[in-house]
UniProtKB/TrEMBL annotation:
<comment type="similarity">
    <text>Belongs to the sulfotransferase 1 family.</text>
</comment>
<dbReference type="GO" id="GO:0008146">
    <property type="term" value="F:sulfotransferase activity"/>
</dbReference>
<dbReference type="InterPro" id="IPR027417">
    <property type="entry name" value="P-loop_NTPase"/>
</dbReference>
<dbReference type="Pfam" id="PF00685">
    <property type="entry name" value="Sulfotransfer_1"/>
</dbReference>
<dbReference type="InterPro" id="IPR000863">
    <property type="entry name" value="Sulfotransferase_dom"/>
</dbReference>
<feature type="domain" description="Sulfotransferase">
    <location>
        <begin position="48"/>
        <end position="307"/>
    </location>
</feature>
<keyword id="KW-0808">Transferase</keyword>
<protein>
    <recommendedName>
        <fullName>Sulfotransferase</fullName>
        <ecNumber>2.8.2.-</ecNumber>
    </recommendedName>
</protein>
Length: 314
């Protein structure tokens, strides 16, 4: 089935493109739908695969860097001068299914990927390819408080928006966000899909939060390494390997690397836009009291009772 033949029940104004479409219960662009259909048809998970999942602007770039550094630390110690993260953007080291591997009508040969194969996606849990859901391959999900995620998305999309389109007004965008009409959203369905699976199958899905990672990076790196099946040894802890990885992947370090100042990775977008402030609570500089009230209500209505809660300030 091609994207064109799919039955689109709904269409909404897009953030980066003129329109977004509802596909399998979430919002996305036609190019993404085309790639997801190919991914569904051709991808076959291995038990050893690792999938990093996020809704956009929740810490994807950071999680990719951390997972890569943890998994490859024997070959590339975090302090080494030839570490791949010093010359490559994390999106080039851990490819997205929908923006890289299956984009532009490609069917990749993934048989030669070194194990554990590590991939990334923004696709909601419900719409992942079946073998990913059924096998014991591991999924790491990171999410971020919706206030900061909204601001990060709004600013990023305005930078990448087609020049032929008018700028995205904060108020319009905010209403779209609260109504769920954002790429891969509604955000609450995206979060709850992975959240519920992490509660039911904690060995399958590790659920992380951006704010917790910022607050105590070392603690969460240990948790991540253990989940990925490569816990830090006592010796590594003594040698401060965890701190070295946290430092290599820190916002300040990554933002100032030449590859992230001048290179291009996802969909030919400039890497520098991926590194803005990297803070918890920047929403305070942008949202009016009535917007705060509105989003708080949406979160209570949609996430209330799920046990999923967020820290809104650092
Ligand atoms: N290393 C590191 N540490 C902490 N925070 C980081 C890091 N790298 C990127 N960022 C911040 O993450 C926000 C971008 O989110 P994503 O990486 O998910 O974007 S994307 O979906 O891949 O386009 C965006 O947040 P805002 O600064 O609030 O816009 C980035 O600045």
């Amino acid at each position: 089935m091609s994207a064109r033949n799919c039955c689109f029940q709904f269409l909404e104004r897009g953030w980066r493109t003129p329109y977004i479409y509802q596909f399998q219960g979430f919002w996305c662009q036609p190019k993404e739908i085309q790639a997801i259909l190919l991914f569904h048809k051709h991808f076959q998970a291995r038990e050893s695969d690792i999938i990093l999942a996020t809704i956009p602007k929740s810490g994807t770039t950071w999680l990719k860097a951390l997972a890569f550094a943890i998994l490859n630390r024997k070959q590339f110690p975090a302090f080494s001068n030839n570490h791949p993260l010093l010359v490559s953007n994390p999106h080039d080291l851990v490819p997205f299914f929908e923006y890289k591997l299956y984009a532009n009508n490609q069917i990749p040969d993934l048989s030669k990927y070194p194990e554990p194969r590590t991939f990334a996606t923004h696709i909601p849990f419900q719409s992942l390819e079946e073998s990913i859901k059924k096998s014991n391959c591991k999924i790491v999900y990171i999410c971020r408080n919706p206030f900061d995620t909204f601001i990060s998305s709004w600013i990023y999309c305005n930078k990448l928006r087609a020049e032929t389109l008018p700028p995205l007004l904060r108020e319009d965008c905010f209403n779209m966000y609260c109504n769920g009409a954002i790429g891969f959203g509604p955000f609450w369905d995206h979060m709850l899909g992975y959240w519920k699976e992490s509660l039911e199958r904690p060995d399958k899905v590790l659920f992380l939060k951006y704010e917790d990672m910022k607050e105590d990076t070392s603690f969460h790196l240990k948790k991540l390494a253990k989940f990925l099946g490569c816990p830090f040894s006592m010796e590594e802890e003594k040698e401060r390997v965890i701190e070295d990885i946290a430092k290599l992947c820190s916002f300040e370090k990554m933002k100032n690397l030449e590859v992230n100042k001048s290179g291009k990775s996802i969909m030919n977008f400039e890497n520098r836009h991926l590194f803005r402030k990297g803070e918890v609570g920047d929403w305070m500089n942008y949202l009016s009291p009535s917007m705060v009230e509105q989003l708080t209500q949406v979160m209570e209505e949609k996430l209330g009772g799920s046990g999923l809660e967020f820290k809104l300030l650092s």
